[in-house]
Write a structure and sequence with these properties.
This protein is mostly beta strands and 225 residues long. It has one domain: Porin. Helices cover 9% and strands 61% of the residues. The chain contains one helix and ten strands. Strand 8 and strand 9 form a beta hairpin. It is globular. The model has no long low-confidence stretch (mean pLDDT 88).
């Protein structure tokens, strides 16, 4: 809970910055899109990493231009699906579905095109807290009487740093961001986040597991009156 409180306090601080920095020019934005995630690392000398897993993301962000520069501060709070696929064939589909509330604090450079369209590129740190997550499996059931069907089973992911834990609480890393925004406020952005936190509980020696996720998002920046 302490980590959650700290993240909420940090989010409140970041989203209140426009009041002190550039309140009149700050804009609110929303985004939604898709993610492709995987988990990389090494446990007991064996490489960790399956196939990427598709998910989705949505969130809200601020665009805060820094006065007399082409730089903007883009703090955002997002729901992000991470994890990976461990088994996938004609009969089975097994994956880890990790869900996070993620705070991003990006700084971007804007080209500010002559027609009001804008290409931007930048990045910043990310901080995430775990939301309810699951190990999911789908297995095809061959039924000689009825049509074959997929049986879906979900088991909760235990969050913590104990012997019974599956994933450590929290995540942080570095985010790279680029995109294009039209004068109307609509835009498209791409990001790549590399996790720096070792999410393996009770890691020993050189054991580690990191989250990695790519995202493609449709965005809309609300115009100020």
């Amino acid at each position: 809970m302490t980590v959650m409180k700290r993240m909420l306090a940090l989010a409140a601080l970041l989203f209140s910055l426009p009041v002190f920095v550039s309140a009149q020019s700050a804009q609110v934005g929303v985004s939604a899109g898709f993610t492709s995630s995987d988990m990389y690392g090494e446990v007991g000398g064996n490489k960790v990493g399956g196939d990427s897993r598709r998910g989705y993301t949505l969130g809200m962000f601020l665009n805060v231009p820094l006065k007399k520069t082409s730089i903007s501060f883009l703090p955002g709070l997002y729901y992000v699906q991470k994890g990976n696929t461990t088994v996938k064939d004609n009969n089975r589909d097994i994956w880890t579905a990790l869900r996070y509330a993620e705070l991003q604090a990006n700084f971007v450079y804007n080209t500010n095109g002559p027609k009001g369209n804008n290409f931007f590129i930048g990045g910043g740190p990310t901080f995430g807290v775990n939301l309810p997550s699951a190990f999911v499996s789908k297995t095809i059931v061959r039924d000689p009487i009825k049509s074959d069907y997929w049986l879906r089973v979900e088991n909760n992911v235990n969050i913590g740093n104990e012997a019974i834990s599956d994933v450590r609480f929290g995540d942080y890393g570095v985010n790279l961001l680029m995109g294009y925004r039209l004068k109307s406020g609509w835009g498209l952005s791409f990001n790549y986040s590399a996790g720096l936190r070792n999410i393996k509980p009770l890691a020993t020696g050189d054991d580690y597991i990191n989250n990695h996720v790519m995202g493609l998002q449709l965005t809309y920046l609300v115009k100020n009156k």
